[in-house]
What does this fold into?
Amino acid sequence: MVASGTATIQNEAGIHCRPSSHIIKSVQEYPGKIRVFHAENGECDLRSMLDLMMMGLTCGTKVELTVEGPGEEHELSVVTELFERVYDFPNAGSGQ
It folds into this structure.
């Protein structure tokens, strides 16, 4: 079976290096396939942090997510939350 849904990027800075790393680490143990699609920015497999970062997903961007494998509906909800999360990483230039 394949589960699919959409997510809207909520993080103000988009899906840059740190959120990408967190997303990839969070799904790396899943044995199935997870893919991200965007009409203008292409698609990627969530096994590649570089491919995810290269998509250039900015705040407000809508993406389609597909999950194929065991427990696909649950994993889809996990991945959706990861893409819609507001990551509160310190701003490197803020002196914090």
